[in-house]
Design brief:
This protein is of the alpha/beta class and 214 residues long. Helices cover 46% and strands 16% of the residues. A hairpin with a 4-residue loop joins strand 5 (195-199) and strand 6 (204-207). Helix 6 (131-140) crosses helix 7.
Length: 214
């Protein structure tokens, strides 16, 4: 805890000055983020760092496994659903990104590293939202015998599953129909910092090397 307190002190005395005008404007005018960024709670995944974004640019939602529950899901998952609705219908973001990552503990648990039946009850219930991902990997990736390869398949399929579930939200349906909202599936590699974006035309995650990500 002392480390956090020291960090807060350093931010206030050393770093805040460089952002003073920006924070004053954000405080005065309110937030107007351009992107809803849904990613994992993993401490190694930092949306603002990965995208080199400034305060106020991103509306970030972090949860275990960057899981996007369908609009019909209730219970604790309503927190993620509420954030999606707020970002899309109130803040009117222009883009929504679902960003998965390598070495995801949630996907490891989903695929059998920690059987959901023996996991703590809230974690087990949360992972149930991604059960279709596990089924997809077991049926469509049955040829993969290596656990690492199967987990990577689950990590990527979970991003696509999230994109599908986003389209169950009425607000997103309306914005997509109006043509003023875009959905993106991203995958971040922890060890290398590489970012891959899903390309619907090839149905593959392709490395982003330069230029805008679509």
């Amino acid at each position: 805890m002392q480390k956090l307190i020291d960090g807060v002190h350093r931010f206030r005395t050393e770093s805040f000055g460089g952002y003073r005008a920006l924070f004053q404007r954000l405080s005065r005018e309110g937030q107007d983020p351009h992107t809803l960024f849904i990613t994992c709670s993993d401490s190694r995944v930092l949306a603002e760092l990965v995208t080199h974004s400034q305060p106020g640019d991103l509306f970030v939602v972090k949860n275990v496994g960057n899981i996007v529950p369908p609009v019909t899901a209730h219970d604790a998952s309503s927190s993620t659903g509420a954030a999606i609705e707020f970002a899309v219908e109130v803040l009117r973001v222009q883009d929504v990104v679902v960003c998965g990552h390598s070495q995801c503990g949630a996907m490891s648990a989903l695929m059998g590293g920690v059987p959901p039946t023996s996991a703590p009850q809230h974690l087990a219930r949360w992972l149930e939202h991604a059960a279709p991902v596990r089924q997809t990997v077991l049926t469509e990736y049955a040829h993969l015998k290596d656990d690492v390869a199967r987990q990577r398949a689950a990590e990527e399929e979970n991003v696509l599953f999230g994109l599908e579930n986003l389209t169950t939200y009425p607000g997103i349906q309306r914005r997509l129909a109006a043509g003023d909202l875009r959905l993106h599936g991203w995958f971040y590699h922890l060890a290398t910092g590489e970012l891959h974006a899903y390309a619907p035309e090839t149905r593959q995650f392709q490395e982003v090397v330069s230029g805008p990500v679509t």
